[in-house]
Design goal:
homodimer, eight-stranded antiparallel sheet, 12 strands, about 35% strand
């Protein structure tokens, strides 16, 4: 069943899941156990799967990310919005969040942190560098998964004040932008 | 009239306009003229108005930002989505984009680049640092403006493939998140 849900897609497609600025569920593995944290501070740095992620020692997962230099950026759809917020309110220090929130996982292909099956997409990343002055991880995507059967694939955007918006009306400016679109997107 | 539209708000509120990951119109002043570029790669770095913005020499405005170390992050609502895309398709090298697209400007308070009056919000920023390896500007907000009379305040999110989503359904998890909300938001 798991194999039928998440399907691998090309690396360049990672951009289309992360550029919109969605709330993320970031999984890590610290050498002993998996964990997940909720983060909304990320952005692309190029068209080839390089991303920035901002976090700090207040997140229990931070130590695992620094140590193992791997994570999976999982993009929840609107069906997981409330769960993502709940995940952000407890700590992996004393809670097995994956079990507590009933998140279905499956092994990733290139990193040891897990994929979250019910997300819209999962981007396996290696951390190339950490800039402590800004809590900034420079990540390189190494494998990208898409879930074509996600029950509600609307991305969720954190406002920062406890409210969130799901994607609404879609605008298609592909024709207008044709000259500048990255190849293959 | 202009004074009635954009009103100053506290610095911490910048986060609520930028954390959702919206498409941005970034204004600059190169010492001679104003310019504007469309960028969707940005994110918060803290709760006190520090942000990261990713761009490069392919944007004509890049030189002005490096030289003057100032810009305004203007957040267009859905009414400006198509205009923002059009702005991204021409260059300030040979086009006065503010005039061509009929963008109403007004002077900023702390920087020389202009505010765009028809946006949802404008965040005046100073560039603290540039990290050439990643085309990354570290920006510090110095003044924030909100436009309560924006005709369509839905933020716009670039997918990266020529399509865009406006903010749709709103979720309010303020009660659930109360213990973690930054003061005053």
């Amino acid at each position: 069943m798991a194999e039928r849900r998440m399907k691998p897609v090309k690396l360049e497609k990672a951009l289309t899941f992360l550029e919109p600025g969605p709330l993320l569920l970031v999984t890590t593995f610290d050498g002993k156990k998996n964990n997940v944290m909720t983060i909304s501070w990320s952005m692309p740095l190029d068209f080839d799967g390089r991303f920035a992620l901002c976090t700090g020692p207040w997140n229990y997962s931070f130590a695992a990310l620094r140590k193992r230099k791997e994570c999976v950026l999982c993009v929840p759809g609107a069906n997981l919005a409330k769960t993502a917020v709940q995940i952000g309110m407890v700590s992996g220090a004393d809670t097995d969040k994956l079990a507590r929130f009933g998140l279905k996982t499956r092994p990733a292909a290139c990193v040891q942190a897990p994929l979250l099956e019910d997300c819209v997409a999962c981007v396996e990343c290696r951390a190339e560098r950490f800039l402590p002055a800004y809590g900034l991880f420079i990540l390189q995507a190494v494998k990208v998964w898409e879930n074509p059967s996600c029950p509600d694939p609307r991305l969720v955007h954190a406002v920062g004040d406890g409210t969130f918006y799901a994607d609404g009306e879609k605008f298609n400016f592909r024709r207008l932008m044709r000259a500048k679109l990255p190849p293959g997107l």
